[in-house]
Design brief:
Structural class: alpha/beta
Strand order of the largest sheet: 6-7-8-3-9-10
CATH architecture: 3-Layer(aba) Sandwich
CATH topology: Rossmann fold
Strand content: 25-35%
Number of domains: 1
């Protein structure tokens, strides 16, 4: 018997004023990780905002999470339903320390059956943060800021973690380390919706790949297929052919 999808998006439109950004977007995912790839300006971050109920944009359509409709609900209700969000650019508070960032987060409900994260758990996952717990958000490196943004999201005890461009601006060694962390989280039962331009990261984490072009899902492919299709890489992402995408 097929289990119910975790997230189902149907006929989703999103607008910034009169600008029609998302146009009939639809997809679904279960407990497996899913990557949405595409160039800048294709609507990927708008999709994240629409799922999380962050306005603008103005969203119309259906977004169902664990069978419950989310469209029209406030962001804090959506987060409380079990969706964690790591936004593009991390969006930390420069004046708050690492420890203050983590301790200010209210823990989510335990109905999703996943582990209850604490600041101590985040420090165990990211030892670098433990050594920097008294430093402000603006005093961290890019990699440390991303670790903190992920740890902050984990403290809400999500069933689904949405990450928007988590590798942006990071050194290759840091990206590799974070990718291994993502795999560990998935192994522990956390579903991940990854929004990425970095095809190496996307294909390393998720077998299913959705391609977003001009506010629509233009194609669905697999990590293996797109990693071995230089023409598709150039057409959808405008990048040089990918080599050694999947370690």
């Amino acid at each position: 018997m097929t289990s119910e999808p975790l997230l189902v998006v149907r006929d989703l439109d999103a607008y910034y004023g009169s600008a029609h950004i998302l146009q009939g977007v639809g997809f679904e995912m279960g407990s497996e990780s899913l990557a949405i790839i595409g160039r800048n300006g294709m609507g990927k971050t708008t999709l994240c905002a629409a799922i999380m109920g962050i306005r603008p944009p103005e969203a119309r359509g259906s977004i169902r999470f664990r069978g419950r409709e989310l469209c029209g609900r406030p962001s804090y209700k959506i987060a409380g339903a079990g969706i964690g969000y790591v936004p593009q650019g991390r969006r930390l508070f420069p004046s708050l320390t690492v420890d203050e960032h983590l301790r200010m987060v209210s823990t989510g409900s335990s109905e999703n059956g996943l582990r209850r994260w604490t600041p101590a758990d985040v420090y165990a996952l990211f030892p670098q943060l433990a050594a920097r717990r008294k430093n402000g958000g603006a005093q961290l490196s890019g990699g440390e800021q991303q670790m903190l943004a992920i740890g902050r999201a984990l403290l809400t005890r999500p069933r689904l973690l949405i990450m928007d461009e988590p590798s942006e601006g990071l050194a290759p060694a840091i990206i590799e380390s974070l990718t291994e962390t993502f795999k560990q989280l998935e192994h522990d039962g956390l579903a991940i919706l990854l929004i990425e331009q970095n095809l190496g990261v996307a294909t390393s984490l998720a077998e299913r790949q959705l391609v977003m072009v001009a506010g629509t899902i233009a194609a669905e492919t697999t990590a293996s297929q797109i990693a071995n299709d230089p023409e598709a890489q150039q057409r959808y992402l405008g990048v040089e052919p990918l080599t050694d995408a999947r370690p």
